[in-house]
Amino acid sequence: MANRVITSTDFQSLKLFKRGKVRDVYELGDYYLIISTDRISAFDVIMKEGIPLKGSVLNKISNFWFDYTKDLIKNHIISVNVDDYPTECLPFRDFLIDRSMLVKKAELIPLECIVRGYITGSGWNDYKKSGEICGIKLPNGLVESEKLPEPIFTPSTKAEIGLHDENITANEAISLVGEDAYKKVKEATMNIYMKASEFALSKGLIIADTKMEFGYYNEEIILIDELLTPDSSRFWPLDKYEKGRSQESFDKQYVRDFLLSINFNKRPPAPTLPQDIIMNTSEKYKEALFKLTGERITE
Q1: Residue 78, SS3?
Q2: Sheet strands (E) in the chain
Q3: What is the CB-side half-sphere exposure of residue 152 using CA atoms within 13 A?
Q4: Neighbour-count burial of 102, counting CB atoms closer than 10 A to its CB (0-12 exposed, 13-18 middle, 19+ buried)
Q5: Which one has a higher pLDDT value, 254 or 173?
Q6: Selection from 156, 169, 192, 171 nearest residue 68 by Cα
Q7: Hey, what domains does the chain have and what are their CATH numbers?
Q8: Is the peptide bond before 269 cis (omega within 30 degrees of 0)?
Q9: What is the 3-state secondary structure (H, E, C) of 102-140?
Q10: pTM given for the model
Q11: Which pLDDT tens digit goes with each residue over 116-142?
């Protein structure tokens, strides 16, 4: 089942709350069950093929970071041990192991909290046009993949499946979620990024940028969703880093680069991914897990 894309028929006895691009969320009384699938999306389009073991890698990396940063802000994790889950999960126990988490029911704050330590991706494109990212003026003369003088917080909207997230200014973000919430999620995002980046560097990885999500639980803002995975971040090998060009990566940039090479129009339907792209992407995800945690994952 590792490389089969999960469908709505797989867990019919559970109450589906939301199906995302990669994660499926089920409602279990006072909790949510989040399942990290092997689906992969690029340019907000879900590919037809899954990436073997990707869901397990994402789940393990997220859980590692949630634990590593819990001193900075509370998060939604209740348990990743399937034996702790409600009884209705038991029929799916074998599948849920390593790729699921039982979490608190938080109310989503509709903001993608993005922090950039290096200039790349859509930020690089925006900078070339205007010298700014999300209304933040940057120094002249920066080159692709260059480390920024200091990390910047560049929020975006959180779009539904099939739509694109849009970069927004601080004022636009404040009007969307309120000034108090904005200040709190910005501070938490920056603190998490700084702590995680320092750890990753010690493991030979650069976290170029990442995005986080937050929600309200008992009127308190907590960290939710996933955290610092190859899906939500750009991981670059430190020993091969060189500014002025695009970088090798341990994330889905490999899939994005393939899609760009075939002039994909960034709209459904997704093209077929070649088997070598699928397997090489799987290896990159597994290598990211190993570099960060020392854990090897196999079938």
Answers
A1: strand
A2: 15-19, 23-28, 31-36, 41-42, 45-46, 77-79, 100-104, 107-108, 113-118, 132-133, 136-137, 147-153, 205-217, 220-224, 233-237
A3: 20
A4: buried
A5: 173
A6: 192
A7: 15-106 (3.30.200.20), 108-264 (3.30.470.20)
A8: yes
A9: EEECCEECCCEEEEEEECCHHHHHHHHHHCEECCEECCC
A10: 0.92
A11: 999 998 899 999 999 999 889 999 999
User: DSSP letters of 43-61?
Assistant: TTEE-SS--TTHHHHHHHH
Instruction: Give the residue among 92, 1, 12 at the shortest CA–CA distance from 53.
Output: 1
DSSP state of 260: H
By residue count, the chain amounts to: 299
pLDDT tens string 146-155: 999 999 999 9
Helix axes 179-202, 54-68, angle to 10 degrees: 110
Q: Do residues 250 and 232 make contact, with C-beta atoms less than 8 angstroms apart?
A: no
Using the predicted structure, report yes or no on whether residue 9 has a pLDDT greater than 60.
no
